[in-house]
């Protein structure tokens, strides 16, 4: 697909739909909506439009389908796989005016529009005594719509599941302009094919999400947070599986290599930690519930498990402030690591017991292809973020050797019964590794599904599926 | 589609694949595999075959696809929507030789073949200190493969979710004979379209499931079970939502109308209850966890909520025997109610706060169309089983008036943001109500998905989608 030119008459029609003040052709706006958090890419849409309701989205889609112009839905632009990049230009469909929240206290559900910031939604639920668990590190700026599109996870996924586990029903606009609900507002549903879960994680390639019905839980009143320094990275990884095998399901179990912590402590204000030189990695472990005695018992069990490993003194957060500081640090790791250099980030995921093998494989690939990596992530669910740092590597090696190393890392994850992405999606930057996870039969099925929903391939084209399919 | 005749040469080829001792043409065997638990239907397959491994399934599918002969996968034949009925004859593919279980204690996963009985799998996990929560009432005879195909639920779904929430990855054989995995063995996965969840609940219409990777949890050590008699059915329904609104997530919350209990007490041995004449319904409530003190506190909170309703004395099960007796009774309700008469069972589901409205609507429909219904089910997740009893109703009313009443009940569930089936599937008997839950756009999408996987429509044809689509 070549870069698109939108006919002037179509621009006029689009302006009629959304109104003059919600259509933008200027370079500054287009560039602003041309990037997310994926490496240093910028693919400006040809035009940015900001519809105000589902009906407008429907009319836009009908028009785009008629003119065969790509439409890329845009949320908080915090994505790490390039899902929101307008790689062929076309219409950048910013959903930012879709920001209503309704909390249904009677049914423990949230009816939420896609542009609502994840943290805003979590707080709205919290105020009513309810709990929306998914908490991507970017929760302060990412949107619920983007979370659904990428099937975002976060630190609480090991106990509470990921975004998909909370989505009950979706209002979507198809490329044809038709508006439909994917399911029902029920906790159980065995009524036809699961269109809801087909839409979740489809990265804006099957339909435009305009409304989301989320399951909510009663909120927990207490938690205990502990930071555990390990003298050996591999042992930190091993401890992860051992904690579960002892019958404990923590609400968070995060892994950070030494570099990740050091760089982050320099990057964020107001957090300090006294770490021995010999410490190679940390686990940040949280348990939550309503009964403090139960949490103390769980924490003690965890300490019993940790006894068998070489660890330094455990830090127990003794106040809300200290908890917030530790979480602030953990959430800033990604940004901190990336602030140092050009980078590539992979979102590897394996069954959790395989983490030590994965980590060792990543370091071996780095050695072989000459790159430095900083690893951290949601170890409790086997999801390890691999940040490959360009540093002073020359461009040629960066562009030719590093992708070979990434391919080897992905081959390793798949051989361990894992896969390419745990929570970031495939989007633009991982699509040409999809042949590692899927054979031609599987990829052709996915392509056919795409074709049913979007026969003219106008919805976020050039994402997920490999170029040569 | 007319009833199928399988060419003799194909029978010979099938026999070559599975061996003579695993192919059956006699009437007795065909009739045996011609029914599940759906009303009094019997649709014998033309031939019953019992493949022994995935490769054999693949060869069978290739052959069936070439000859365009329907294939109906058959599990425990406990289904209530007719998913396993060979309505056009063809090949009845009994998966009963697929019965291996592997428990991966390191990753808290079970790798299980489809014919494993649900209870056997639950016990295998339990022996390793692990927990597979889904527990359909038929758990002693239904199979894991059938549970996946119908997205079965059970009594613990309100806290722990349904079958779909445990399926991580599936090995399936497509109608083309191709063997593929749908995903990865990971807790998180944002890698392409969710083929796993498309397969779950697809009732054997998209592929033959030959292996299932299930997530397991650490098992809980304690629970409290209480049986609460309500003087008003409507109040029992209202109490359900109130318990959640008080911040409690029970591990089971079951509703039984008076008739359901009375009939069951007559039907099962070894369970007796002393129930006042004025009692209209019961809730069976369970809380579970590892800390007895916490459970007592939860039970007290529940009793606090129940105080506002007109209830009789609560029965607390004081031994494992009594717990087992109460659960045995609850699980037998379906069979007991159905043993009285010809019946039709609907599997309505609504957001849980709407239960009282649903129950009232069901009774009103019964009055209008002259049928008696007995209702019970998993009220904690809004899933109410409606058993319509033929009793001494004449055949004409049974065949013309009752379907009108069912249609009105389904229209009510959908207007309450609920849907047709919570856990039984649509199968054969509910397919012509699908237009109530879905419009033509949605149904056409489903039909197109079916067509991608199964272009010759050989896999369990005549299920899920309405006849006139």
TrEMBL record, chains A, B:
SUPFAM superfamilies linked to this entry: FAD-binding/transporter-associated domain-like, FAD-linked oxidases, C-terminal domain
Keyword Oxidoreductase: yes
CC cofactor: FAD
PANTHER family in the cross-refs: GLYCOLATE OXIDASE SUBUNIT GLCD
Keywords: FAD, Flavoprotein, Oxidoreductase
Entry superkingdom: Bacteria
Residues of the FAD-binding PCMH-type domain: 41-219
Name by which UniProt lists this protein: FAD-binding oxidoreductase
Keyword Flavoprotein listed: yes
Family matches, as Pfam families: FAD-oxidase_C, FAD_binding_4
InterPro entries in the record: FAD-bd_oxidored_4_C, FAD-bd_PCMH, FAD-bd_PCMH-like_sf, FAD-bd_PCMH_sub1, FAD-bd_PCMH_sub2, FAD-linked_Oxase-like_C, FAD-linked_OxidoTrans_Type4, Oxid_FAD_bind_N
Gene source species: Flavobacterium suzhouense
